[in-house]
Amino acid sequence: MKIIMLGAPGAGKGTQAEMISEKYNLPHISTGDIFRANIKNGTELGKEAKGYMDKGLLVPDELTVRILLDRVAKEDCKNGYILDGFPRNIPQAEVLDAELNKLGDKIDAAIDIEVPDESIIKRMIGRRACVSCGATYHLENVPPKKEGICDKCGDKLILRDDDREETVKNRLNVYHEQTQPLIDFYQRKGVLKSLDGTKDMMDVFQEITEILA
Length: 213
Ligand code: ADP
Ligand code: AMP
Fold this sequence. Notes:
This protein is α/β, with parallel strands linked by helices. Helix content is 49%, strand content 15%. The protein has 9 helices and 8 strands. It has helices at residues 13-24, 31-40, 44-55, 61-72, 90-102, 117-126, 165-179, 181-188, 201-212, and strands spanning 2-6, 28-30, 81-84, 109-114, 127-130, 136-138, 157-158, 192-196. The protein has a 5-stranded parallel β-sheet with strand order 2-3-1-4-8, sandwiched between helices. Helix 2 crosses helix 3 and helix 6 (117-126) packs across helix 7 (165-179). The protein is globular. The mean pLDDT is 96. Bound molecules: adenosine-5'-diphosphate and adenosine monophosphate.
C-alpha cells in the first residue's frame, strides 16, 4: 500500500503517518525529517536545505526528488510506504507518478487532512519535536509524559526553527500556492480522501483506518 499524506504544515500529517506506520507496518517517510537529520549531521545537503527551510520555502526539486526516489527504492519499501511532506508541488508529483508508472505501480490513497489556517498557527507554535527520532508533541493537545522529554526515545524536545510565527505564515503561503493544487491532481486520479483534521487525533486516525480498510 502506497499512501500520500496531504495537508497544510501542522495539519497532523506526521502524527497520523506515525500511527498508520505502526498499524500497517509500513515505513513513514518524511522528507522534512530527512532534511533535519542532514542538518543535525552537518552534511552538505543539510547546509543547503537549511537556508530554504528557515525561510519557510521549499527546498529545490533537484535536491528533494533524488532523495525521495533513493529512499523509496530501499528494501523496506517493497510492500509500500507512507509519504509525509512529499510531493509538495505538481512537478514532484509528476516525477513520482512517472517513476511508479515505470514499475507498473501507483499511489493507492492520498489522504488530505483539512485544518483551517487559524488553527494551524496555534498548532505549530505549540508543537515540540524530538531532536533524535522526530516524534512530535503539542504543549496542550499532545503533551509528553515528562515535560521536554520524548516519550519514545527519551531525548530532548525542541521548538523547530521553522515553527516560529513569521515562518509559519510563509509556509502557509507556500502551501496554498504550491501544494494545495495537489488536491485536484489526486482527485483526478480518483485516490483523494479528504477528512476533517480539526477532530481529536484518535478520531482522525479511526477515519483513516476506515478509508484504508
Ligand atoms: P504536520 O506533520 O502536518 O506538519 P504534525 O503531525 O506535526 O503536523 O502536527 C502539528 C501539531 O499539531 C503537533 O504539535 C501535533 O502534536 C498537533 N496535532 C496533530 N494532530 C492533532 C489533532 N488532531 N488535534 C490537535 N492537535 C494535533
Ligand atoms: P515538514 O517537516 O514536512 O514540515 O518540512 C519542513 C521543511 O522541509 C519545509 O518547509 C521545506 O522547506 C522542506 N521540505 C520538506 N519536504 C519537502 C519537499 N517535498 N519539497 C521541498 N521542500 C521540502
